[in-house]
Structures are given as C-alpha cells and as structure tokens.
Design a protein that fits this description.
Elements: H1 2-25, H2 30-35, H3 42-53, H4 56-69, H5 75-98, H6 103-111, H7 119-136, H8 139-146, H9 150-199, H10 202-209, H11 222-238, H12 240-246, H13 252-283, H14 293-300, H15 306-345, H16 353-360, H17 368-392, H18 397-420, H19 426-449, H20 462-480, H21 487-497
Length: 526
C-alpha cells in the first residue's frame, strides 16, 4: 500500500508538466511570459503569492522547528507573512501601477540614472541561489520516498520545474502554483494538523507530555526571532521574485488586498506547522533530524494515500519557490544584467533622459515570438545552472546568506527610500548601495575570521545591521549634498505612480544610454 504514496507523488509531478503545456497556450508575448499578462484576479493572485513565499523551509522546516522548539517554531513563517503584509499594504499598489518588470527598472525610473543598475548583479545572485537552494531541497523528500541518490533526486525534481517554467513562463508557473497552493492547504490544514493532534491525544495530551517551554512564544530565543524578521521580512520587501508576482496583479487593489490575504494565510500556516511539530514530538519522539519530521508524519501517522498527498504538498512548496526564483533570475539577467554589463564594457554606462525613458517604456519593438523564445532560453540556461549548483555544492545556504545580506544591507535603503522619500537622489542611492554592500561584506569577512572565538561568521546578523546603518547614512548624506532629482525624471515617476501615460506593452525594453551622466556609478531559502 505504501506504493500508493509514491504513485500520488509521481502523478503530481506529471501533472506539473501538463501545466507547462497549458500555460504555453496562454503565452502570446513577453508580458504573458514574464508577468502572466498582468491579468491575475484576487483568487489566483492570493494563491500564487502565498505559494511562492512558502517554500521548503516554511513547510518542512517549519514543522521541524515546532518539533524542536514548540509553538515558538512559528516565527520563521510568521516573519515571512509579515514581509508579505508590509509589502502589500505599503507598496504593492504603487509597484503594480509602474508596469515594469524588475527592481532595477524601478530604480532607474525613480532616480533617472543607470548607476543603480548595479543592483541587478546582487538581485541575480540572490534569485539564482534561492532557486538552487529550493532545488536541492527536493532531496529531502525524494531520497526518503524513492530511495534515490541525492543528485538524482535534485536532477529529477529540478527537471520538472525547468520544463514547465521554460515552456509556459509565468502562466505555467501561476497555474502550477495555484494547484500547489491548494495541495499545501489541504495537506497542512485539513490532513496533517488534525491527524497529528488526534494521534497526540488532543491539545490536553500534548500539554501533559511536553515541556512547558514548548508553549512559550519566545522559546526559540529572542535572537533567532530577530534574525527571522531581519532576514525574511526585510528581504521580502525588495526581492525580485516577490515583486514579479506583484506585477502579475490585474489592478492595484488586487495587489494590495490579495497580498494582504496571502500574508495572513502565511501567518496561519506558520502556526499550523509549529503545532504539527509539537504534536509530532509526542507521537514520534525519536526522530533523528528535525528536517525528517514532516516526512515521518506523512508516512507514520497519516493513512496511506493521504500521506502521499502530504508528501506532494512538501514537493509543491519547494517547486513553487524554485520556479518563482528561476523566472525572476532569468528576467533580471536578460532585462538588467546583460545590458548593464555590455554598457559598462563599452564605456557607455551613462544616464539621462534616454535611460530614464527606456525604463519608463516597457514595450519593445522586438517580434513577440522571438522575444518569448529568447526569454525561454534564459530560463532554460539559468535553470540548468541552478540544478548544477544544487548538485555540486553541498551547502549553498552560505552563498544564499551572503546574497541575502547584501540584498538587505546594501539595497533595502535605496529601494524603499525611492518609494517614500522624494528628496532621495541617484547619487545618494548609488552611494548607499556602495556603502551598504562594502560594509556588509567587510563585516562578514571580519566575523568569519573571528567566528571560532565569538561570532557566527557569515551567518551572523551584524553584517546586515552595520550594512543598513552605513547604507542609510550614505543615502541621506548623498541625497542632501546633491541637487534634487531632475524635475523631468520626477514628473515621469509621478505620472507612472499615478498610472498615467503607460503605453501598451509586449515586454521590457532594454536600456539605451543617452545624454550626460546624471550621477556617478556607484541575501536562506524560504
């Protein structure tokens, strides 16, 4: 009968491939391929936003944290939900109105200077490492279920994501994520939660058989809770993978309230995972690794068949994050990184009215089918790179941690500053990125050297703290010491924020340099 669990997971994987072909039929141009034509309604938007942020760490890891620390194991996923809530309430409607494709395009549009495109290098590293980490997580399920070697598990799971993401782009990913959202909801809330609590003897049975510390909201430790909010909440505010989902919303209202609903769902998901882990600690007290708790609950506590659905839910969580990160990496690489690097090598890294206009006009003169084919090539190529990284590097978390730290410590201030402070300038933004990145990496290097004595090396929080302080100081000082952003640039920005003067689109325009320089050239899987 255990073969039934395996059959259900296999059927799920085949179904994901089918969604690739379904999505292909809805992909007519680059806008369809990259942002699902900006046509998602409330239900699809909420479901897919929740799916992309709730990955393997939120699902498998969240249950494991509950198993180890009790109810306080919820804080990792709660921090993710808080990030989605803040982004949705404060910025999502503005981002949706911009009709752009990448974070770097927002910076170029707001500041009118191409020097901010250096942010795309960090964003590419972050999204690629996030994809690799999510891809590597398949091994935790497939090794147990099929008995495969780790590299085979990664290759097979990665290939499924790669096929449906490449074929249909964001439409395929959206359709797949919606199914994944339903499977995760049923698997966690309707199956794992009631079955595990019942097996533990109900809430009273859990209370009688676990330490009182398991019911403490701070049992996991204040430092860990702070870390989750610093890394995940702040990272979610500016991550390309999350912004790209915001761009898929049909209206600003959907972006705001659909995202708010997704954030609340994430918080409830975190609480459910922690409670499942608590109950599992009573029923399965001898699990060797907390990362194995989820699979052990599915196999040992749930009836055959239902256990297979729960295992499919874990795979769904990992695939939704991996596919979202993959298309985000491909979008950033083609729209931002390649033009920036090419311009830099040609000595054309200048800014002005032409650069600003390129960012402001997402339409392109390219043949739509030709453009879609080029984007497919980028998704395929970077997907293969991510699979290779996941197989070759046993611990990609270190690389992702560095990317996350630079993302938050180096880029957060200039990105959010551009959204909330009109006095912020391109020079201030570029200086902020340079200072924040340098201080973050420098602090990380120092702490790594002294890690054995006092600190946690690259996993410490200090690099982000110091990077944020340096970035904020540089942004404020650099902006106040330079002239205000050009009035024409600000008018174009305000028009875009108001939803005025946006032409029909088929894909992102590649930046074209023109005019005099307006400024100087200047980071764990969910």
């Amino acid at each position: 009968m255990e073969h039934l669990n395996t059959a259900i997971v296999v059927a799920y994987l085949v179904g994901m491939l089918a969604f690739g072909w379904w999505g292909k039929s809805r992909t007519k141009n680059v806008s369809d391929y990259l942002v699902a034509g900006r046509r998602l309604g409330p239900l699809f938007y909420t479901g897919t936003m929740a799916a992309v942020v709730l990955g393997g760490a939120s699902t498998v890891g969240g249950v494991g944290l509950g198993y180890t620390y009790g109810i306080s194991g919820m804080w990792l996923v709660v921090a993710i939900g808080a990030g989605v809530l803040l982004l949705s309430v404060l910025f999502a409607s503005t981002l949706q109105k911009l009709k752009i494709y990448t974070v770097s395009q927002m910076l170029t549009l707001r500041y009118g200077t191409r020097s901010t495109q250096a942010s795309s290098i960090v964003m590419l590293a972050y999204t690629l490492m996030l994809c690799a980490t999510s891809t590597g997580a398949y091994a935790t399920i497939f090794v147990v279920l099929f008995g495969w070697e780790r590299w085979v598990s990664i290759a097979v799971g990665g290939a499924v994501v790669l096929v449906y993401s490449t074929i249909g782009g964001m439409w395929s990913i959206t359709l797949a994520d919606m199914v994944q959202f339903v499977i995760k909801t049923v698997g966690v809330f309707a199956l794992m939660l009631p079955f595990t609590i019942n097996a533990a003897g109900g809430w009273d049975g859990i209370r009688d058989r676990v330490d009182a510390e398991f019911f403490s909201l701070t049992g996991i430790g204040a430092q860990s809770i702070i870390t989750y909010f610093v890394v995940y909440t702040l990272g979610l505010l500016i991550g390309q993978d999350i912004w790209q989902r915001v761009f898929t919303a049909r209206t600003p209202l959907i972006a705001r309230w659909g995202g708010t609903a997704a954030g609340i769902y994430c918080i409830l998901y975190g609480v459910a995972g922690a409670v499942i882990g608590m109950a599992a600690s009573v029923v399965l007290p001898a699990v060797a690794s907390k990362d194995d708790v989820y699979a052990d609950v599915a196999i040992s506590i749930l009836p055959v068949g239902l256990g297979g659905l729960v295992l499919a839910a874990a795979v769904a969580a990992m695939m939704s994050t991996a596919s979202g990160a993959l298309i985000a990496a491909a979008t950033v690489a083609r729209a931002d990184v390649v033009p920036f690097v090419a311009g830099w090598f040609k000595g054309r890294n200048t800014a002005g009215s032409g650069t600003q206009q390129a960012a402001a006009s997402p339409e392109t003169a390219e043949n739509p089918e030709h453009s879609v084919a080029q984007n497919r090539a980028w998704v395929l190529g970077l997907g293969l790179v991510a699979i290779g990284l996941a197989i070759a590097v046993q611990d990609v978390v270190a690389a992702l941690t560095i990317s996350y730290d630079i993302l938050v410590g180096g880029l957060l201030v200039s990105i959010l500053g551009g959204l909330v402070w009109k006095r912020g300038t391109g020079f201030g933004a570029a200086l902020s990125m340079a200072a924040g990145t340098a201080v973050t990496l420098g602090t990380m290097a120092v702490l790594e050297i002294t890690a054995e004595q006092q600190y946690d090396g690259i996993y410490a929080n200090e690099p982000i703290y110091f990077g944020l302080l340096a970035s904020a100081a540089a942004y404020i000082a650099g902006s106040l010491l330079t002239a205000r952003t050009d009035a024409g640039v600000m008018r174009a920005w305000e028009d875009r924020v108001a939803g005025r003067g946006i032409p029909a689109e088929s894909g992102p325009a590649e930046p074209t340099p023109a005019g005099p320089a307006a400024s100087i050239p200047a980071g764990q899987e969910r």
